[in-house]
Amino acid sequence: MLSLRKVLAVAAASAVAVVGSIAVTGQASAAAGCRVDYTVTNQWQGGFGADVRVTNLGDPITGWDVRFSFGAGQRVSQLWNGSVTQSGAEVSVRNAGWNGALGTNGTTSFGFNGAFTGTNPAPSAFTLNGVACTGAVTPSGSPTTSPSATPSQSPRPTTTPTSGPVTGSAAQLVADLGKGWNLGNQLEANINGMPSETAWGNPVVTSALIDRVKAAGFRTIRIPVSYLGKIGSAPSYTVDAAWLSRIQEVVDLAYDRGLHVIINMHGDGYKSVAGSWLICDASGQDTIKDKYQKVWQQVASRFSGYGGRLILESMNENFDGQYGAPTQPCYSNINAYNQVFVDTVRRTGGNNTSRWLLVPGWNTNIDYTTGSYGFVVPTDQYRSSAIPSSERRLMISAHFYDPWDFTGTESGAITQWGPNATDAARKSTWGQQDFMDAQLKKMHDTFTVNGYPVFIGEYGSIDKTSSDPSNNRYRADYARTLVATAKKYGAATAYWDNGHNGQYGFALFDRSSATVTQQGIIDAIMGS
């Protein structure tokens, strides 16, 4: 889907609100206690990323203020999941508007990027609402007693990324991917070509949201990513370290919960996006390919140790911007991008030599990928020798939004779809279930039977209930039929969610409250 069609709100691009320090207290007679786990997630020259997980061992609280001191002059430069003030070495982090409630044994977390000079020791002490975080519970207003045994922290949902070759057949991969969901309008969002997680009106991605998505039954999260103005100048084209670290942190929110994760290069190939550069009919293709190679080398290297649940996707809906038949040499350049991607990722080593890689054809369009329009599956000459010669490690990406007058046109004219439609005037004259079946069969017959699994990386339909109160029934029918048809033909799927609820929105969840907003559509996707 064209990126700008996904933009339904624009907000100031800031992940951190710096406010005055105001202590937040719990109930006056509440038992108090806490535990903090501070982890430096990555470190580079002069900078670092950190994750801070706080466990409340006392009575429930409705707001939190975590304080600590740096011991070597470190400074917080960017923080998410809260707001920060820093005075000298003293740091205070308060909850965001949506994550202040913290029950007994409940956990919350925030992350940040920081700067340091020389050494980077971890803070030695933390407080939660003024109470020292020792791992024990201290009843307020009562004499101090010997602490009880420290409760063990809930483990991370999975182990750290595995080493060794990725295993599993194409059929097993599709089965493992299950039903997927897109974290749209987040890491591909930008203002004037500068990526920012909150640029298009969504809040910072949280663990609570990913927990809710997983609880709803989704097993895969596709994370669209734009790089744009976060890429430095030639010849190194260095990706901004803080941005790359934030991408990894969001990936980890899903990967650590046992989900499959797919990340791609999203808005960099849209002519309509300021700062786009991966343009197939632009001049200077050698420079474009060099830049593309350098960026993917950095991204792939960052994730080379992750296990088989991580999949890298070369790009998103790349074409010349004209919704007609593919043109040459533009299609040849798209094929070349895919080949550069595969070769580059494989050469970074580690699990990248054997992981599954995802590549699209022209605009991820089924007709232009399966037909005789010029799509070429990349060669995979640098893959691990441990992979049996009969097995593939390449997947083919396609998107499905037909008929667009039902799924995406922002009007109230076409609001119904499928055999259950009750008003012929509100139903499109094409693109019904027989067409859907035929399109997915094309992907099956061209790729699946030849060992290349198919991933329908985006599908869905916008909310038109303001024009037709029955619209959600047909949105659910559409999703149910797409997922069932894809399964019939051995393909996996991921619903497009842009985070927008209400008129013309695709959202299934409220990202601020981490709650479900379209249970009926989710039930349809899950086959309920």
From TrEMBL:
SMART domains per UniProt: CBD_II
Catalytic activity: Endohydrolysis of (1->4)-beta-D-glucosidic linkages in cellulose, lichenin and cereal beta-D-glucans
Cross-referenced SUPFAM superfamilies: (Trans)glycosidases, Carbohydrate-binding domain
InterPro entries documented for this protein: CBD2 (IPR001919), CBM2/CBM3_carb-bd_dom_sf (IPR008965), CBM2_carb-bd_dom_sf (IPR012291), GH (IPR017853), Glyco_hydro_5 (IPR001547), Glycosyl_hydrolase_5 (IPR050386)
Stored Gene3D superfamilies: 2.60.40.290, Glycosidases (3.20.20.80)
Assigned EC number: 3.2.1.4
A Pfam family matched in the record: CBM_2
Signal peptide feature range: 1-30
Coiled-coil ranges from the UniProt annotation: none
Sequence ranges assigned to domain CBM2 in this UniProt record: 27-136
Enzyme class at the top of the EC tree: hydrolase
Swiss-Prot/TrEMBL keywords: Carbohydrate metabolism, Cellulose degradation, Glycosidase, Hydrolase, Polysaccharide degradation, Signal
Chain positions covered by the region annotation Disordered: 137-168
Domain of life of the organism encoding this protein: Bacteria
PANTHER family: ENDOGLUCANASE, PUTATIVE (AFU_ORTHOLOGUE AFUA_5G01830)-RELATED (PTHR31297:SF41), GLUCAN ENDO-1,6-BETA-GLUCOSIDASE B (PTHR31297)
Stated family: Belongs to the glycosyl hydrolase 5 (cellulase A) family.
This protein's name: Endoglucanase
Organism: Cellulomonas fengjieae
